[in-house]
Amino acid sequence: MNRLIPIGYVRKSHGTNGEVQCLMDNELFFDLDPDFIFIELEAIPVPFRVLDWHTKGDDALMQLKGIDSEQKANRLISAKIFMELDDSSSDNTDSTQTLTWASLAGRQLVDDEQGPQGLIEHVDETTANILLFLDNGRILPIHEDFIVDITDTQLTTHYTFLIQ
Fold it and tell me: What is the secondary structure of the chain as a DSSP string?
């Protein structure tokens, strides 16, 4: 699970051929067009080959290998969908596109002036206000407009926070 990032969940089955309608919380899926996704079944990420997909509004309609009936698709309803962080199925991406909010979890948050602030345990992307949850109980807002610089080891923001 360390290399997987959440990208959405299965909303419902679509049609009788096993297609599933998925709400994508993370635009990374659309940017990378992965060959595989992982669906969490009984707390285990199970890989599925994406045979075909297209959009329907904000959702993605997907045909997955091995899911060829409405009954099989219905077993996936409400399951979380993940993608490998370093999925390179698209040839036109660069390394900055693989940085997601969820990928900040597990990194140390350091204020440029005040020093270490805590370890980022969780990133909440469920609302327009993205929040960093630290191991010391603090909750801090973050937004892409605040980012000044990204390197391999840190993320610098307008708040003078550094993520290492």
Answer: -TTEEEEEEEEEEETTTTEEEEEES-THHHHH--SEEEEEETTEEEEEEEEEEEEETTEEEEEETT--SHHHHHTTTT-EEEEETT----TT--GGGG--SGGGTTPEEEETTTEEEEEEEEEE-SSSSEEEEETTS-EEEE-GGGEEEE-SS-EEETT-EEE-
